[in-house]
Design goal:
The complex is a heterodimer. Chain A contains 12 helices and 18 strands. By secondary structure, chain A is an alpha/beta fold. In chain A, the strands form 3 sheets. In chain A, strands 1, 2, 3, 4, 5, 16, 17 and 18 form an 8-stranded mixed sheet that branches. The chains are: A alpha/beta, B alpha/beta. Chain A binds chain B through residues 188, 191-193, 195-202, 268-269, 310, 313-318, and chain B through 12, 89-91, 109-114, 116-117, 121, 131-135, 169, 172, 195-200.
Chain lengths: 423, 309
């Protein structure tokens, strides 16, 4: 079981690309990697890319409570189809994951699905209300990987300080959604010429860096590590850069969509662009791309946020925030950033696999001998149409819907077993 | 010119030629309104639904009359009588209505983009009768008609738009139109009611009303939405009136031949002095008359610009 050989692979790791390799997998581990030999028998990869499988630091699987949007099975299937074998799920379910029992429930569902690693973050505060901190010790014992009040942020700075301090003794990820709610309340899109023209209520972009500054100062004060979720502006990036220079233990992530879309997309009132944080200006996008290339941004995370079509096909102000991202992450990054020479494919591997793997303290995401056989096969030549058939998620709320992207995840391997394969 | 649009969603999307074409037709229909029998058969056999999700008196009556003058069969649906309150989505409501075989939908809604949304999903012609703070194109068109009756050439005019620009769909439609005519436009409002980003519009901003009203050919006063006070954007109505209302004293300072416009309904004593609305400079009621003619022109053109026989 779980033994196979992949022949004629182009191995793409975060630091190098090696062509014409044969990968021998035994007992779920990479047994050996050798130069291709015509004598070796196995699955012919035909020179396509073999990457370490992807790690998502930020997703919403909607279970428990909103299974009509997504559940752990449909969401996990979508993740595998996107090449992700390790995913962080956020606690803003209904009810929130704010106690050990709810974490145990997620871990039970993970074991029923079998073919994926799910890392729940517990809520940092009970009911995510930013009043009382949660039972973190017990949640970690139940299987939580860390804590977050994602979707809101922990609005009370004293509560956040105490929560971060309490968590500091554990080896865990504390991820914070940074949004100054008083500034963003009621807003639909970034405040700019576009918000004025469309009439949609604008959100001043400073709401993000104001919240980030508060949280970075708290982390600096406590000398603890902190992860900043989904940054979207140049000012946020520059703040994080400054604090990194000061040796504050901060890491941050960006979503694929904030690396490619700018706010002009809102002219058509398409609710599949309605997200938080809002889509910003082209110059923000360019600065974020620089932030990826200069190493300030540690990870790319999907913020996979499913909503049903009938929830999104409504008046713009009534539509919920969020878009799905598992299945389009790698193809959209490849199409819009790698093929256009803005970001190297190795950097994508670093931010979608190697770095987030380190942040979660899981197996090393490098395709090399002795490591776990968590892999994906990517065909950079193939064009994919993003339609209902392509998407495995229960929801289809993606701005790429009915568009074509380059690059296809052909196969996903988890612990030496093929868990997804294009037919 | 050949009219090819199926919907009227915004002034932004119209060319100057299209605006002129609508106004030319509106002037013809105004002649119809002067007859004792104000009816033409242009939309005979056509069904128009006035789908109003926001309270309206003037615009709804104006559209209804325009439809009746054109011999269309029309019905009015307002939020109170529809199933919206029961939790039905806008799309479901609209599709249900269209399943009853309607030809045109006039929609007013408090969400920006609602008219465009319906236009994308329905087969009917859609007319935007105001969508949130986005646009109110028929209001701007009737305003341009009213201005043209007095001044002919919009390019040579100095126009002041006074009041809550930030939340005004009328202001946005006017701005797009005036930009196409290259009119000299000044905006006046407290900074909190003025959009922060106006880079794409060639306009002047003046916070001092006494300076702003000088030498203007048109003073367009927006309605103060009194509920805005609760959002903390200005401290009190009293201060707003002192600082930004067209008071009688200020009225005496404006240019002799300038005109005063307002989209209605007016708050006497708030954005303008109670007597100013009745002065010889006010064309506010003429705007209302022109509203019917303009809407007749739009309905006529969207139906293909021909009489139904």
């Amino acid at each position: 079981m779980n033994n196979m050989t992949l022949i004629n692979c182009t191995i793409v790791n975060h630091d190098k690309i090696e062509k014409n390799k044969d990968i021998v997998i035994k007992d779920g581990m990479i047994d050996s990697i050798k130069n291709h030999s015509s004598n070796t028998k196995g699955i012919d990869i035909c020179g396509m890319y073999v990457l370490p499988s992807l790690v998502d630091l930020h997703s919403h699987l909607r279970e428990p409570g909103e299974e009509f949007k997504e559940d752990i099975f449909s969401g996990s299937t979508a993740a595998l189809a996107g090449g992700f074998t390790s995913i962080v799920v956020m606690p803003n379910t209904q009810p929130p994951l704010d106690n050990p029992q709810s974490i145990l429930y997620i871990k039970k569902r993970e074991s029923e699905f079998k073919n994926i690693e799910i890392f729940p973050l517990g809520a940092l505060t009970k009911k995510m209300e930013s009043i009382e901190i949660t039972e973190m010790y017990d949640m970690l014992r139940a299987g939580a990987k860390g804590f977050s009040d994602d979707g809101k942020g922990t609005s009370n700075p004293r509560v956040f300080l105490n929560g971060l301090r309490y968590a500091s003794r554990f080896n865990c990820l504390v991820s914070i959604h940074c949004e100054e709610n008083y500034l963003s309340e009621g807003g639909q899109i970034n405040e700019s010429d576009i918000s004025i023209k469309t009439g949609l209520q604008g959100i001043p972009f400073i709401e993000e860096d104001i919240a980030i500054y508060r949280n970075l100062r708290i982390a600096e004060y406590l000398k603890t590590s902190l992860h900043i979720a989904h940054i979207s502006t140049a000012d946020s990036l520059n703040l994080i850069k400054d604090f990194k220079k000061k040796k504050v233990k901060v890491t941050c992530e960006v979503t694929p969509h904030h690396l490619m879309f700018d706010e002009t997309v809102h002219a058509a009132y398409n609710t599949n662009y309605k997200i938080k944080p809002s889509i910003k200006s082209r110059s923000d996008v360019n600065t974020l791309i620089e932030g990826v290339n200069s190493g300030i941004i540690d990870a790319i995370a999907t913020d996979h946020a499913p909503h049903q079509i009938y929830e999104k096909e409504v008046e713009f102000i009534c539509a919920p925030f969020g878009i799905i991202g598992f299945e389009t992450a790698l193809p959209s990054l490849f199409t819009n950033l790698v093929k256009t020479n803005k970001i190297d494919i190795k950097m994508i591997v670093k931010l979608l696999s190697y770095n987030p793997g380190k942040l979660l303290f899981i197996d090393e995401r490098i395709v090399k001998e002795g490591n776990r056989a968590n892999l994906l096969v990517f065909n950079p030549e193939k064009e994919v149409l993003i339609d209902r058939k392509f998407l495995k998620s229960r929801s289809i709320n993606t701005p790429f819907f009915s568009k074509k992207l380059y690059g296809s995840v052909e196969m996903t391997i988890f612990r030496g077993k093929i868990v997804y394969k294009v037919k | 010119m050949n009219w090819s649009r199926r919907h009227l969603l915004s002034i932004e999307e119209l060319s100057k030629e299209e605006i002129e074409h609508i106004l030319d037709n509106a002037f013809s229909f105004k002649e119809v309104l002067k007859r004792s029998i104000k009816k033409v058969p242009a939309l005979r056999g056509k069904t128009v639904v006035n789908l109003f999700f926001e309270p309206s008196t003037r615009t709804l009556i104006s559209f209804s009359l325009a439809e009746k003058h054109l011999s269309a069969d029309s019905i009015n649906v307002s939020t109170k009588s529809s199933s919206v309150m029961k939790g039905e989505t806008l799309l479901d409501t609209a599709k249900n209505i269209e399943s009853m075989k309607t030809d045109m939908v006039v929609v007013r809604h408090n969400s920006e983009g609602a008219a465009k949304f319906l236009a994308e999903h329905l087969n009917s012609n859609v007319i935007n009768a105001g969508d949130g703070t986005h646009e109110h194109p028929t209001q701007a068109l009737l305003d341009f008609m009213t201005i043209k009756e007095i001044y002919k050439d919009l390019k040579k005019l100095k126009v002041l738009i006074l009041g809550d620009i930030l939340h005004s769909r009328v202001a946005r439609s006017l701005l797009w139109g005036f930009m196409k005519y290259k009119t000299d436009v000044t905006l006046c409002a407290p900074p909190t009611l003025m959009p922060l980003y106006l880079n794409d519009f060639n306009i002047k901003i003046e916070y001092d009303i006494d300076k702003a009203i000088k030498n203007k050919d048109v003073i367009y006063i927006l309605r103060m939405q009194l509920e805005r006070q609760e959002t903390g954007l200005f401290p009190s109505l009293r201060e707003y009136i002192k600082d930004f209302s067209l008071t009688y004293e200020r009225f005496l300072m404006i240019k002799n031949r300038s005109i005063i416009m307002h989209p209605g309904p007016i708050n006497r004593g708030v954005e303008l002095d109670g007597t100013v609305a009745d002065s010889e400079k006010s064309v506010i009621l003429e705007q209302v008359t022109n509203g019917v003619a303009t809407r007749m022109a739009i309905l006529y053109l969207l139906n293909g610009g021909r009489n139904n026989e």
